[in-house]
Amino acid sequence: MFLKFLAALLVNILLLSGTFAQDEDEFFAQDKDETELTLRSAESAISAAFRGKKGQFERTVSTKKINWKQGSFLGFGGDRSQTYKEVLYKIEGNDAFITVFIQDDWKVPDPLTLDSNLQYGLNNGDIFFVLHDKEQKPYQHRFKMTTLQSIAYYGNEVLKLIKGYDASWIAGDYLHNL
């Protein structure tokens, strides 16, 4: 199931970048052995599809305060937070838009070059990028959450109020370098 999700995500990325096949059937006809698809190859495909592309600033959507744990001991201490601007960019030569979270005290670049200064995350099939100090290590789901992640997040907030314990550090996937 996970491999099918990754394969579908990879197809959407490649279609977005205009790199490969025109539909999923053609993609899988090219490579029927979908079990060979690994997370590493998906990450490589994402990097290859986006690296070097340029985006033109469209608009700032919102600002968002991200809270996370970094350097905590079993969930105690290590509280971090940073405000980010959620910005939309239009990819040059394509009608696709990308979401970029930019550290609030940083200038919004226009144009934006998708390069090693950025990190990216995936959640629920959506790709987003983050431009910030890479010493900061928030999990991907801090930026975009599925419904289940939102429920778990608010459940953890209640746990913090009642018991004073923060379990948010237990599970997550860090951002990936582009």
Characterise this structure:
This protein has 178 residues and is of the alpha+beta class. The protein is 29% helix and 29% strand. It has 4 helices and 7 strands; from the N terminus they run H-H-H-E-E-E-E-E-E-H-E. It has helices at 2-17, 24-30, 39-50, 147-163; strands spanning 54-69, 79-91, 97-103, 112-113, 119-123, 126-131, 176-177. A 7-stranded mixed beta sheet has the order 4-1-2-3-6-5-7, with no helix packed on it. A hairpin with a 2-residue loop joins strand 5 and strand 6 (126-131). The chain is elongated. Mean pLDDT is 76; it is low at 17-33.
Set out the fold topology.
Blueprint: H1 2-17, H2 24-30, H3 39-50, E1 54-69, E2 79-91, E3 97-103, E4 112-113, E5 119-123, E6 126-131, H4 147-163, E7 176-177
Parallel strand pairs: 3-6
Antiparallel strand pairs: 1-2, 1-4, 2-3, 5-6, 5-7
Helix pairs in contact: 1-3
Task: Provide a quick synopsis of the model.
With 178 residues, the protein is an alpha+beta fold. The protein has helices at 2-17, 24-30, 39-50, 147-163; strands at residues 54-69, 79-91, 97-103, 112-113, 119-123, 126-131, 176-177.
